[in-house]
Amino acid sequence: HPHSRPRHPGARTMLPLLLLLLPAAHGVAQLGYRPTLTPSPPLEGLTTASTFVLEQPRCVFQDYGNAVIWLVVALDQATSTFNNTAGPGTPETAFQSFPDPVRAYMTLNATLGSYPCPKPAGDITVLRVGSETSCAQDVTRPTCNGPLPGPGPYRVKFLALEGSNPVAETAWSAQIMLRTAKSPNSISTTGSGHSAGMIAITTILSILFAILLAGLVAMLVFWDSDSCSGSSTFSKPESVTVRRYNTHHVYDQPAARL
Amino acid sequence: MAKSDDCAHILQGLLVFGNVVIGMCGIALTAECIYFVSNPHGLYPLLKATENDIYAAAWIGIFVGLALFALSILGIIGVLKASRTLLLVYIILMLITFAFEMASCITAATHRDSLTPERFLKQMLERYQNSESASNSDNEVTKTWDKLMLQNHCCGVLGPSDWQEYTSAFRLTHSDADYPWPRTCCVLDAQGLPVNLDGCKLGVPGYYNSNGCYDAISGPVNTHAWGVAWFGFAILCWTFCVLVGTMFYWSGIEY
């Protein structure tokens, strides 16, 4: 029987051979690459509330020209339980059932031709995870690259499939946390205090106004008395003209004498 | 006798000069306040929505300026005629005008202090593209923000991240994946369409406006508020001196 355990003495040589064959049968190469968020140029929308931007895996899958490269997006807790043989487009990896009950979905399939190596300098090569809003609710599109439903944390990895066999995978990325939006009610608009200018204006003007009022009161109280200004009385314009007339006469007399 | 004559003339001359300056400053104040009230930068809907009284200060300034001009003429006549009653009327009316202008200055300064970025941020988040509200002021706020962002090439109050850090009325109708920030934050071409929509959504430098609009708002508002407040303060200081001189002159007039 091919499935019975080897019990005869030839089993000792069979066992190491079987052990050697097992990894070859799995055949999933562990590539050293770790997916990251795009480091440059600095993007304002690197992580938003429902999307994030990954660097494209350029020059990573060079040996797998026939494979289709998929992106696996998983909840942080689900990275250890993800099965590489779960196929894309099945209910177990459908985006529309993420995050419950599906804990990791597969999306953004591409062939090696989409990731040419080397990367041309100056090109911005990114993958925006979460950009397809049109198919987010469409169960006929289980590989939709829909917006992520919560702030995470998430982890991603790239998986190369030939047909339905996984042939290579990258390491899981570091934790990716998305932004959480606060309510505008949390913005405090209560006074930032008064500036020095405003305080200066208020105090100085108040003092000036008080002085003027005091002066007005003094004027009204001392209406009838000349006590404050006895020696420096200002004469009315009529008496001034009279004095001018007198001065005119005074000057005339010496002229007449001459 | 001659000495006090000279004193009288000197004081008269000074008071007439003082009143001429007050009259001219009154006209200038009126002109300045009319300029501010005419809303040259189109920011009035934003300020109105924050229930702010900076415009009230400007309106008071217009009338105070005209009153100062009229009273300065009265003052000149009263000084030249050395009439006690005219000058008393002048002083009392000037004090009333002084009080109003004082109120205008303090109002302008106080309300300027309350126009912090947080206030505008909260208003923008609650009202920009608020589709639920039927009130006209929200539409005005939306139009003002769009115009502000287009003309000044800016986004949000502090930056496009305002739309990410806080939920908003805009977020209720526009999904985060399609509209991380409004389309008016993108660099637009001549037809008003984004030059590169994906670049704008990603936040690639050059395809979106990365700075906030607070500087574009606070610049004109500061000019407005300090223009009313400090110019009014200067006029009042000068008026104080003229009034004190007038009181001395009045108390020295024979009757």
From TrEMBL, chain A:
- Protein's name according to its UniProt entry: UPK3B protein
Q: PANTHER family annotated for this entry? A: UROPLAKIN III, UROPLAKIN-3B-LIKE PROTEIN 1-RELATED
Q: Where are the transmembrane segments?
A: 196-223
Fetch the InterPro entries from UniProt. Answer: Uroplakin-3
State any GO CC term: membrane
The UniProt keyword set, sorted, is:
Membrane, Signal, Transmembrane, Transmembrane helix
Q: Point out the signal peptide segment.
A: 1-29
UniProtKB/TrEMBL annotation, chain B:
Give its localization.
Membrane
Q: What is its main location?
A: membrane
Superkingdom in the source lineage:
Eukaryota
Q: Where are the transmembrane segments?
A: 12-37, 57-80, 87-109, 228-250
Query: What are the entry keywords?
Result: Membrane, Transmembrane, Transmembrane helix
Topology class, membrane: Multi-pass membrane protein
Matching InterPro entries, A to Z? Tetraspanin/Peripherin, Tetraspanin_animals, Tetraspanin_EC2_sf
**GO CC: one term?**
membrane
**Which protein family is it in?**
Belongs to the tetraspanin (TM4SF) family.
> Oligomeric state and partners?
Heterodimer with uroplakin-3A (UPK3A) or uroplakin-3B (UPK3B).
Query: What name goes with this protein?
Result: Tetraspanin
> Which organism does this record belong to?
Picathartes gymnocephalus
